[in-house]
């Protein structure tokens, strides 16, 4: 939601921050969560979710589903650890859990740029 809310091009910023042309991924469980959230969402939130889907189209889809009794955040954490991926998120709790697991995280700073932590 960063590009829509803050006008930051996350792809351009990620390339600048990481000093290369990274590969971008989204998991199937994240795409499914977006679909579920759209059901019954307010018009403004539905617009944000549709924008998230457009951003996801620029990413390769990892065929990763949340396991039984596993949340989407837990599946992101598990996948990042298993595949040694950097995760971009503004979710403070997910960011904390990722850092505790030794995963590098791209975060938004000052509503203007991305920074790699970890």
Can you put this structure into words, describing what you see?
- With 118 residues, this protein is α/β, with parallel strands linked by helices.
- The chain has a single domain, classed as 5'-nuclease (Rossmann fold), CATH 3.40.50.1010.
- Helices cover 51% and strands 15% of the residues.
- The strands form two sheets. The protein has a three-stranded mixed β-sheet, with helices on both faces. The chain has a two-stranded parallel sheet with strand order 1-2.
- α3 packs antiparallel against α4.
- The chain is globular, with a radius of gyration of 14 Å.
- The chain starts with a helix and ends with a strand.
How is this structure best summarized?
The protein contains 6 helices and 5 strands; from the N terminus they run ααβααβαβαββ. It has 118 residues and is an alpha/beta fold.
Record the SSE blueprint:
Elements: H1 2-6, H2 10-18, E1 25-27, H3 28-38, H4 43-56, E2 60-62, H5 72-83, E3 87-88, H6 92-100, E4 105-109, E5 113-117
Parallel strand pairs: 1-2, 3-4
Antiparallel strand pairs: 4-5
Helix pairs in contact: 3-4
């Amino acid at each position: 939601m960063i590009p829509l809310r803050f006008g930051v091009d996350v792809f351009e910023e990620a390339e600048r921050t990481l000093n290369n042309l990274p590969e971008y991924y989204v998991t199937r469980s994240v795409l499914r969560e977006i679909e579920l959230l759209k059901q019954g969402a307010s018009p403004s939130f539905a617009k944000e979710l549709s924008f998230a889907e457009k951003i996801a189209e620029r990413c390769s889809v990892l065929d990763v589903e949340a396991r039984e009794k596993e949340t989407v955040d837990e599946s992101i954490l598990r996948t990042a650890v298993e595949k040694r991926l950097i995760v971009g998120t503004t979710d403070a709790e997910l960011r904390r859990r990722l850092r505790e697991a030794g995963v590098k995280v791209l975060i938004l700073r000052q509503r203007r740029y991305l920074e790699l932590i970890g």
